[in-house]
Every structure is written in structure tokens, then in C-alpha cells.
Design goal:
By secondary structure, the chain is α/β, with parallel strands linked by helices. The chain has nine helices and nine strands.
Length: about 210
């Protein structure tokens, strides 16, 4: 499908949110095709691009390629509503320092919204995008070291299987680096949870 109109709208929204310097790059067009296919729920295009509409997005690439900006902008093209929330992984770990283990529940087992008027289905999973996975550190709470994001993602995986809870993630890390930080068990589950959408690893820093 030709997403030219959506690309124009995306650039306009980017300039509205981030300033007149924001622009899209021709080299990113294949990546944007995948994101639009996913967030517009374009089944035919998703099939062509090997995108699973029942998984989330794992958006990877070097620092400065615009991952956070793009995933945030995609909220405005998402169908159906409501929009997913974007949370910095560092912000989540700071919440953990303040509030403890209930933060892990907040973003996993308690990550449901009431839906009406369906009495037999009172909860709907809340979708989150966790931004900059890997920039946070393992945190000690009352002497116990906890990999907060690892625990949240493992818990959300369980709800992905049972309740179709969707999670999105952005990261600068490679698959090997993610495994080093979070272990093989989580990396294996991430393959099931996410569509990998990657910027060119040689991509330039667009902030310059």
C-alpha cells in the first residue's frame, strides 16, 4: 500500500510536536511501511511485510535514529483506540525505588482497564511502550537486587499469552546485548512477544 498521505501527516505532526527541524528520511521508508502496516491494522500489507498484528513492536537502532519520536508519533495513527502510553524505562525504575514491588504489578498484573458494558469481560489489557530498554540499571530495594524491566516484561509475557496484552519497546541494544542484560529466558519470550523493526545499524545520528 502507498502510505504517502500518512507520511505527510506524520511529518506534519512531528513538526508540530518536535519543531520545524523534524523531518522523515527516505532511507527510513521501509521501516515506516512496517510501522504503518502495524498501527493502521493493514492485514494485507502486514502479511506482505511479515508483521504479526497480534504481537507488539520491538523498535531497535543506534542512538539518535529517532526511535522515541517515531513510536510516540505512531500513537496518533493507531487503530483502534485507546492509544498506548510511552514510559521511559529509567522512569519506571525510579518509580520502583520509590514504591517498590507494586510497580512491577502496576505494569503487569494490574495493567488492565475496565470495559463497559460487558459484565463478563470487565478488564481490557493496557498497552505500553517501554522506551530505551537497557538504559536502566538493576535496582536494590531493601537489599534485594531486582531487574525491574526484566520482571515487568516476563510478567507481561504471561498476560500476552493469556490475555493478548500488547507491549512495545524501543532499545539501542542488539539481541546479544539484551540477552546479556536480561537472560536467555526473557530473550526467548521477546521473540514471541514482538515484531522486530530495526533501523540500519549504520544509521546516522539525526540529532546532529
Amino acid at each position: 500500500m502507498d502510505y504517502t498521505t500518512h507520511l505527510t501527516q506524520l511529518e506534519q505532526k512531528g513538526q508540530e510536536l518536535y519543531g520545524p527541524h523534524f523531518r522523515l528520511y527516505p532511507s527510513d521508508r521501509p521501516l515506516l511501511q512496517k510501522l504503518f502496516a502495524f498501527f493502521l491494522r493493514d492485514q494485507e500489507e502486514a502479511d506482505r511485510l511479515h508483521i504479526d498484528l497480534y504481537k507488539g513492536i520491538l523498535l531497535t537502532g543506534p542512538i539518535g535514529t529517532g526511535k522515541t519520536s517515531l513510536i510516540t508519533l505512531m500513537r496518533y495513527f493507531q487503530t483502534p483506540q485507546p492509544r498506548f502510553a510511552v514510559k521511559s524505562c529509567r522512569e519506571v525504575t525510579f518509580e520502583f525505588i520509590k514504591d517498590g514491588y507494586q510497580v512491577i504489578q502496576k505494569y503487569s498484573s494490574q495493567s488492565f482497564a475496565p470495559t463497559y458494558p460487558i459484565p463478563h469481560d470487565p478488564r481490557k489489557p493496557i498497552a505500553y511502550c517501554f522506551d530505551d530498554l537497557g538504559t536502566e540499571s538493576a535496582i536494590k530495594h531493601y537489599g534485594n537486587e531486582t531487574n525491574v524491566m526484566g520482571e515487568i516484561l516476563l510478567s507481561r509475557y504471561d498476560h500476552f499469552i493469556t490475555n493478548r496484552m500488547i507491549t512495545h519497546v524501543t532499545t539501542n541494544l542488539s539481541a546479544g546485548e539484551l540477552e546479556t542484560l536480561y537472560g536467555n529466558r526473557l530473550r526467548s519470550r521477546m521473540r514471541e512477544m514482538f515484531n522486530l523493526v530495526a533501523f540500519d545499524k549504520e544509521g546516522s545520528d539525526k540529532r546532529k
